[in-house]
Structures are given as structure tokens and as C-alpha cells.
Amino acid sequence: MANSRKKTRIAAVGDIHVRENDKGKWVEYFRTVSEQADLLILAGDLTDTGRAADAVTLREELNACTIPVVGVLGNHDYEADEQAEIKKALHSENICILDGDSIVIGNVGIAGIKGFGGGFDQHMLPLWGEKMNKQFVQEAVNEALCLDRALAKLDSEHTDLKKIVVMHYSPIKATVVGEPEPIFPFLGSSRLAEPINRREVVAAFHGHAHVGTLEGTTSKGVKVFNVSKPLLLKAGFNPPFFIFEV
């Protein structure tokens, strides 16, 4: 017998870079997303300057979004050291900003982290050398551990979930290809892919690499999508969001 369970349409976009003076700019966009999807994922760099005032404007624009919104912060959101205020400004019954935790919406379990850099595959930076280098690498290790805990919680508390991961930095090299190769270590880390591979994730979404590649897979075949808004625009998505069904 065919599975009659209704699929969930996930709209995903990253790097929207909302500014304080963007009032009214995003209303039609979020209305359109709501018409075409059941859930919106925001893959970091929600604000442009990292100020809470940007997030207040985004929160007002998201009033036009009638579907649940799940997001993570990106490097721009940390720029002014107001990340806590940004999360507070965005929090509502309909909006959840994840940071090493998870949420269940319908049949979908979403785990989210910011992620961090460090490079990919055989070119990953080692946890070795000067203290500053160790701190840089340790940040990606910590983020991967947070993601693993969030996915483990979904496994322990729920069954028959479609697990989705959202992050800002990339967990694989394939979806940053197109960017200058010397900056690959600052666009993501293969350490972030380990829990994705091990926890039977359906798909992962990230942003950050504005001129990367839309789609790739982890070493275990998990789909990864770079949904950075500039990349989606360049690829012909109009309006710029990506739809994935689970």
C-alpha cells in the first residue's frame, strides 16, 4: 500500500542580510514562501550588520510569514556581539532560532547549529600547534558535538522522524566549490559532516558560500544544499528560496 502521509514542503534560504531600514522589503517574499511551503528554514546571516535593530526589522517582516520558521545565526549575526539580543528579538511562537538544539514540526525533526570553519577532507586544519590555531579548530569540534547531541535528542525522544540539519557553515567541500579555493577553510569544515553521516539525516542546509554550488552529498550520501540567497538568485530561483519535500 502506498504511503498516504502528506509530505512536508520545506523552503530554505540563507544569507538574507536584513538591515534596519529594510521595512516593507520582505513582506511579499515571506507571503510567497508561505503559499508554497509548510516550513521555512533560514540558514544564517539573518542580519547584515549583526545589530539587534536589524533583527527587529526582520521580526516585523516575518509577520507576513504564516508558516513555522526555524533558523540559525551566521557569522554576520555575531559581528556586533549582539547575538543574544538578535535571538531574543526574533523569538516568537512561530519563530525558533536553534543553537545546538532541535525542534519537531509535524514529521520533521530539525537540528541546528551555526557551525564553523576549518577546511575539508585531507586539508582540514589539525588540532595542533599554537593556542590560537587550536582554538580555531576546537570551535568546529564543539559545533559538531552540539549537533550530535541535538540529533541524539531527536533519536531518543521521537520515532519515525525525518531528520533535517540547518547550519550556516558548510559540512562538505562540494557546495563551496565556486568560491576562491584559498578561503575554503573559512567556509566550513568536514568535522560538521560526521554527526550528519552517523545520525541518518535526510538532508542538510547551509549558506555562507555566496558563489558556491547548490547541491552535494556527504561521504555517506546525505544530501547537502547550499541555499545562500545570492547563489539561488544566480541559479535562477525567483523568488530566491529552495523547496525540498520530505
Give the helix/strand layout.
Blueprint: E1 9-13, H1 27-36, E2 39-43, H2 52-61, E3 69-72, H3 83-90, E4 95-97, E5 101-105, E6 108-112, H4 131-157, E7 162-166, H5 193-198, E8 203-206, E9 215-217, E10 223-226, H6 229-234, E11 242-245
Parallel strand pairs: 1-2, 2-3, 3-4, 6-7, 7-8, 8-10
Antiparallel strand pairs: 1-11, 5-6, 9-10
Entry keywords:
alpha/beta, 5-stranded mixed beta sheet, Purple Acid Phosphatase, chain A, domain 2, globular, 246 residues, 6-stranded mixed beta sheet
Oligomer: single chain
Can you identify the CATH class? Alpha Beta
Distance between the termini: 19 Å
The CATH level-2 architecture is identified as 4-Layer Sandwich
Tell me the domain tally: 1
Structural class: alpha/beta
* Overall radius of gyration: 17 Å
Shape: globular
Q: Count of helices?
A: 6
Pfam family, one: Metallophos
Keywords: Hydrolase, Metal-binding
Domain Calcineurin-like phosphoesterase: 9-211
Protein name: Metallophosphoesterase
